[in-house]
């Protein structure tokens, strides 16, 4: 059985990871959350005072990124948790603050180069489902299947709001919507690998689809590719 790489890109909070995880499990591939890596870099900056007045101290980050260890380790639920310098940061990186800081650090060229290199290493033997913003365009331009996921901002905010509430985080819907819009804007307009749909990708607008319907859609897209 020849393995392929599957790239799933799209806007913030549109369910990319749910689709990617479900698909990876179904076909026995490894799921990799590339956004978690940018979130871990962001958390490092937040914890070490490298973001002042919303601005990243690039020289300081540049010297520490060389020693920063970001990795995924299996957890007891059959998934993987994100570790930064040997500490499990899976929960901390999911906050709105970390998300917003991630969209800032991810505009920096050397940050992207470092993450892209790590991601390419993780996918070099194929059999990977990776989600993010630049997977089909930059990380795996040769991915055999590229899916571009999107949905209306209000619907994405609503879903993310419920998810954060379920995790016990104290959030406000308007803040979540503002965060989604702010990240769309920054991700789409940055100079370094902006979010864009790869020409050879298939688009999934899941505004009106249930998770089950999205899963079915992805499985059939996958059958055509493998
Ligand atoms: O996917 P997630 O929302 O966890 O990503 C957090 C942030 O990391 C995004 O808003 C985006 O700015 C950045 N990101 C990126 N490239 C990726 C994955 C995430 O720039 N491949």
Query: Could you estimate the helical fraction of the residues in percent?
Result: 40-55%
Strand content: 15-25%
Name the bound molecules.
Answer: cytidine-5'-monophosphate
Uncertain parts = none
| Head-to-tail CA distance between termini | 9 Å
Q: Give the number of helices.
A: 9
Coarse morphology: globular
What is the succession of H and E elements? Answer: EHEHEEHEEEHHEHEHHEH
Largest sheet: 5 strands, parallel
The largest beta-sheet arranges its strands as 2-8-1-9-10
Question: Compute the gyration radius: what is it?
Answer: 17 Å
Provide the structure class: alpha/beta
> What does the average pLDDT come to?
95
Number of strands: 10
Subcellular location: Cytoplasm
InterPro entries: Cytidylate_kin, Cytidylate_kinase_dom, P-loop_NTPase
Domain Cytidylate kinase: 6-220
Keywords: ATP-binding, Cytoplasm, Kinase, Nucleotide-binding, Transferase
């Amino acid at each position: 059985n020849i393995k392929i790489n599957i790239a799933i890109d799209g806007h913030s909070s549109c369910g990319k990871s749910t689709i990617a995880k479900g698909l990876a499990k179904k076909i026995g591939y490894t799921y990799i959350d590339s956004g978690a890596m940018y979130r871990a870099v962001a958390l490092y900056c937040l914890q070490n005072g490298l973001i002042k007045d919303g601005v990243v101290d690039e020289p300081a980050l540049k010297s520490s990124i060389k020693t920063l260890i970001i990795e995924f380790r299996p957890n007891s639920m059959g998934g993987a948790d994100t570790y930064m310098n040997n500490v499990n940061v899976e929960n901390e990186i999911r906050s709105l603050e970390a998300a917003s800081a991630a969209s800032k650090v991810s505009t920096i060229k050397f940050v992207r180069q470092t993450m892209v290199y790590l991601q390419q290493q993780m996918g070099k033997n194929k059999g990977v489902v990776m989600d993010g913003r630049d997977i089909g365009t930059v990380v795996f331009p040769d991915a055999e299947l590229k899916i571009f996921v999107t949905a209306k901002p209000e619907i994405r905010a609503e879903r993310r709001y419920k998810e954060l509430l379920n995790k016990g985080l104290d959030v406000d819907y308007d803040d979540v919507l503002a965060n989604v819009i702010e990240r769309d804007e920054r991700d789409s307009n940055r100079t370094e690998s902006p979010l864009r749909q790869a020409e050879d990708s298939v688009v999934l607008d899941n505004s009106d689809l249930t998770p089950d319907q999205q899963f079915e859609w992805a499985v059939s897209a996958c059958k055509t590719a493998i």
